Structure formats: C-alpha cells, structure tokens
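Review this fold:
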Amino acid sequence: MTFLCCRSDSIDENLALKQARVLIEDAENYRSINHKLDKHSLIMYELSHGLRLTILHRASLVILFLLPFFEWPSSLTMSSDIRLKLKPPNLPCGVTEGIEFLCLLIISIQSILLSGAFGLPWVRENPWLIGKYIFLVIYLLDLIVSLSLRCSEYYRIRRLIRPYFLISSSQLMKKVLKCYRRTLPTLFNLLFLLGFWLISATLVAMCVFNNPNRDLTKNSNTARKRFIFCLILVGISPEKGCLKFFTFGGFGLWYLIDILLISVETVGPADGSSFLRPYYDPIVKLLCRTNFTVYAG
C-alpha cells in the first residue's frame, strides 16, 4: 500500500479524499487495506465493492443455491400430497445453464476487479482467490459438458463447488473455518476423552448390574419395548409420560454435561482461570495424579 506524497501545491485533492474515504470504508467493513491506492486501482476497487455489483454478486450466489430445486432431477412440486400426482418442473435444456453462466460471469467480474485493485503479488499470496479462479474454470468446463450432453448427465461436479463461492466471499466464514482448523486437535482430544468416560462407565455398569441367571430369550426385547412404551405413553397421556420421560432425560443430560465439563477442564489449560475449576478441581487433580490427562496437540 503506497500513498501519493508530493508537494502541497500539486496534491490531487480529489484523489486524496478518495483514498481517505476508501480506507475509512475498509476499516468500517473489516476489509483488507493492502490494495493499491493509485487512481485506476481505486476505480476497480470501488467497482468491486460498489452497491450495484455487491447486490448482483449476492443475488447470483442466492440463485446458484436455489437452482437445484429446478434442475433435473427435481422433486419440487406445488404440494406434497402424493395423491395429486403432480409433476416436478422440467425446464428445457439450457435455461438453468444460461442462468448459471450469467451468475458465473458476475462472480468472475468481481474477482478480476479485486485482482486488479490488489495486484498480482497479493493474488499469489491469497489462496482463496486462487481457488476461486480454479473452481471457476472447473465450473465452466462442467457447464460445457452438460450442454454437450443435452443436460442428461446425473452427476454434476459444479453442485459441489457452489458452497466455495459463498465461503470465499464472506470474511466471517473464512474466520470460522480458520478457528475450526486451529481447534480441531483439541476437539478430537476432548471427544476421545468423553468417549472413554462413557465406555468405561458402560463397562462398569454392565459388570455391576449383570445378572447371570436371567433368561436372555425371554427378556431380549425388554429395553426396546420399554422405550417404545415410554414414547407411546408420552403421546397418549402426557401428564404421566412426560414426567417419566423428562425425569429420565434430565438426569441423563445432567450426568453427560458433568462428564463433558470434567473433560474440558482436563484437556484445557490448568491456569486456574476457568470459573468451573473450583467445582471440578478435585476430580481434575485426581485424574492428573493418575496420569490420565490427555494433552491437546
């Protein structure tokens, strides 16, 4: 990013005001300020983030996600009643493909304007924009294949590419994916510890409450029948069934959340800053003393 620095008598006031306005808008909308600030780059940058092109870009994304309801094979009908035997829409070949091409053209124009405003070095360091160009080419090739086969193919690769355009156009979605990438190792450790707790508790319960003299052929479907009876009782007489159902569900969820919180405290940092540590600190210390701690990778 380079500012235009000259003598005070030769400064282009309009360009300076435009630079200041663009930078303020970038700060307000949490956009990158690494773009070029010369006259032509600012024109391309304003066009790419202008109101008209932004509305067209968002509308094209919405249309791309609504097209599967009308593309073949489609199950969209005016009513869900199977007795009416309504036929789904069967648009002629080329209608949805033409709409897709227009949406693809709008996305390509915005990407090209952004590339011109930021410059080639920034494009090389931006994997999202490079991936968008690659997927645009794949999307266009798949669209040409569909038209050459007269829209008779069943598998369409471009349907899997459409979510990428939405993610690459949203800063919030990019940050969410970045957070997922950073926290997945800790999350897997937490799920492993939670599963170990549940499996251990299940094995202990099976050993403690096992009855070796019971008739397995007689009571093989007891648990399934009791569960179905509980659901039927909730539907027939809610005043009796809901009490049993919510009591069982409440205690089960309470124990499960307790195990989950203990797992979080065991996997998390032991700095004493968590508000849960005063309640679960004895259990966590016992687990750490028995070398049961799972460290986040």
The first helix runs from residue 13 to 28.
